[in-house]
Each structure stands twice: as structure tokens, then as C-alpha cells.
């Protein structure tokens, strides 16, 4: 008989590219999916409030987009992305990066990061992107995020395109959120649930949570997830800024064509990049948790 004394909890510190994605026995891969999508559950208080948030969104509009907006101070400092920021803001981020011991890379070229597609989209860029994809200004958008760097001033750049933005702080009462106030991971779990159940999921940056949500949505039937091509979009945004392009139907056509195959349709998981050897090759693979196909998703041919 199990007692409280012999029950144990294993705390896994990392769950990223350090774990194998491919070349494992099929039964092991399927076990990973059973554990992740069936056995593991959020605690009842998280599940309960998460469901309430989804229901309240459905009552407002029926359908909604979940936008995972990664534009927090620590994210920008870690990636070294300062496009559109003031000199004072850029310096503040540099100092934060310099003082964070476990961040190994200190000297980062922001321009190179952005051109390479390694920066999260800014709130303004997200607005331009969603408009070009074809969503009307009336679209209900749930914003899953921490504290946006620059506050309301920077968020207003997105609201000028889509004024119908909703945060969990607007959907839930203060009393409901009190239990999660000092627990960032539990608060993020609420965002996870709302993002999982959304009609469309859009991550502005491909972090661990975005990958996990996308993979879970694939497992549940390849629910629509639009993954921005940040590298391609930066080129178009710069052409807009310089006047080479205008926000017309031709611009929208370019954006839509660029993302024709980036909307969560079934596809096999990508292997390592060619020519990469050693441990580095594993970091170039698509995460198993981002795309558990084909091991955990049945394939069937039309008769």
C-alpha cells in the first residue's frame, strides 16, 4: 500500500533540446505522449479557472485567437532584441543581461538577431501580421503573456489594429486570481489552457510554452496554429518601413503565401539540419513536444 512516506515527486529542471526527439523505440515515444497528454493534469483549481476563462471568452464572441505575446523584459534582455526601443530601454536590457550570471552570451548584435529571425515580434509587428493574414479589427484576441515591456504605450501599438484585446485579468475577478498572484507558473498554466482551447493559436516567439501548446494542439487533431515566419516577416516589415512596400492587398498576398504551410496542418517532425554534427545537431531538430507526429498521431488514407 502506498503511503505519504513512500510517495515521491521528481522535479525535472529542463525539458528542451537536451532531450532526445528522434531515434527512440516507438513504445517509448508513445509512452511520452500518454504521460504528457493523458496522465499529467493541472491541479483542480487551475483546471477549473482555466475552463471558466474559456467559457467567458466563448460567451463574448464564440471564437477567439490566443496570442502568446513574448515581449517581457527578461525575454528581450536574453535575446538582445532592441528594435524599436529607446536608447535608455536598450541600455536597461543590456545591464540586465550583463548581471544575469546564468545567461552565457552577453554581447549580442540586435540587428543580426532580428534579421536572422531570432527576435520575438513586437506588438506592432503582430498587429500588422494578423491584419495581413486577414483577420478583421473586431477579432477577439486573448493575450497570453507576462508584463509587456513598455506597458500600455507599447501595447497600444497592437490595439490600434485590434482593439478587442482581452487578458485574464479582465476575464477573472481579483478574488479568482488571488490564489495565483505569487505563482508565475500557475498563472502561465491558465494561459496554456486558454491557448489550447482557442480557435487559432499564434505565438510571437517559439519558446518552450509555445512549442508545448502547438504539439498538444496537433495531438488533439491539428488545431489551427499559425507560426509566424519571423525571418521572412522582418524583411517585409523593413520594406514597409522604407516605403518599398505598402500595406495593400499585395502585401497581404505576400504574407499569406509565406504562411500557407505554417498553420498547423499535419506533417512529419523535422529532423536535424544537414551538415550539423555532434551535440549541436540535436538542437536543430524539431522538438518532439512541438510535433509528436508520426509516433503519437494515427495516419489514415482516404478510401
Automatic annotation (TrEMBL):
UniProt keyword Transmembrane helix, yes or no: yes
Span list, region Disordered: 257-279
Keywords assigned by UniProt, alphabetized: Carbohydrate metabolism, Fucose metabolism, Glycoprotein, Glycosyltransferase, Membrane, Signal-anchor, Transferase, Transmembrane, Transmembrane helix
Descriptive protein name: O-fucosyltransferase family protein
Cellular component GO terms, alphabetical: cytoplasm; membrane; nucleus
Tagged with keyword Iron: no
InterPro entries per record: GDP-Fuc_O-FucTrfase (IPR019378)
Compartment(s) of residence: Membrane
Primary location group: membrane
Pathway of action: Glycan metabolism
GO biological process per UniProt: fucose metabolic process
UniProt similarity note: Belongs to the glycosyltransferase GT106 family.
Membrane topology qualifier: Single-pass type II membrane protein
Gene Ontology MF, one: glycosyltransferase activity
Biased composition regions of type Basic residues, renumbered to the chain: 259-271
Top-rank taxon, per record: Eukaryota
Amino acid at each position: 500500500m502506498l503511503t505519504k512516506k513512500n510517495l515521491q515527486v521528481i522535479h525535472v529542471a529542463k525539458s528542451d533540446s537536451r532531450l532526445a526527439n528522434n531515434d527512440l523505440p516507438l513504445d517509448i515515444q508513445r509512452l511520452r505522449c500518454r504521460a504528457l497528454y493523458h496522465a499529467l493534469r493541472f491541479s483542480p483549481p487551475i483546471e477549473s479557472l482555466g475552463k471558466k476563462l474559456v467559457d467567458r471568452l466563448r460567451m463574448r464572441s464564440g471564437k477567439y485567437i490566443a496570442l502568446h505575446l513574448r515581449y517581457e523584459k527578461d525575454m528581450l534582455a536574453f535575446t538582445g532584441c532592441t528594435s524599436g526601443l529607446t536608447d535608455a530601454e536598450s541600455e536597461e536590457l543590456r545591464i540586465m543581461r550583463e548581471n544575469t550570471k546564468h545567461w552565457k552570451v552577453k554581447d549580442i548584435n540586435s540587428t543580426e538577431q532580428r534579421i536572422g529571425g531570432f527576435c520575438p515580434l513586437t506588438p506592432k509587428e503582430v498587429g500588422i501580421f494578423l491584419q495581413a493574414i486577414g483577420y478583421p479589427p473586431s477579432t477577439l484576441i486573448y493575450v497570453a503573456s507576462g508584463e509587456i515591456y513598455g506597458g500600455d504605450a507599447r501595447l497600444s501599438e497592437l490595439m490600434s489594429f485590434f482593439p478587442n484585446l482581452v487578458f485574464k485579468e479582465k476575464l477573472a475577478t481579483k478574488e479568482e486570481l488571488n490564489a495565483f498572484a505569487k505563482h508565475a507558473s500557475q498563472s502561465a498554466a491558465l494561459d496554456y489552457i486558454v491557448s489550447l482551447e482557442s480557435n487559432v493559436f499564434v505565438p510571437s516567439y517559439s519558446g518552450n510554452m509555445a512549442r508545448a501548446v502547438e504539439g498538444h494542439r496537433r495531438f488533439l487533431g491539428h488545431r489551427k496554429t499559425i507560426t509566424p515566419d519571423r525571418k521572412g516577416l522582418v524583411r517585409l516589415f523593413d520594406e514597409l518601413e522604407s516605403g518599398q512596400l505598402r500595406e495593400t492587398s499585395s502585401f497581404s498576398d505576400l504574407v499569406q503565401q509565406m504562411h500557407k504551410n505554417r498553420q498547423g496542418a499535419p506533417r512529419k517532425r523535422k529532423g536535424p539540419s544537414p551538415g550539423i554534427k555532434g551535440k549541436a545537431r540535436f538542437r536543430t531538430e524539431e522538438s518532439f513536444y512541438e510535433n509528436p507526429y508520426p509516433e503519437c498521431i494515427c495516419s489514415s488514407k482516404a478510401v
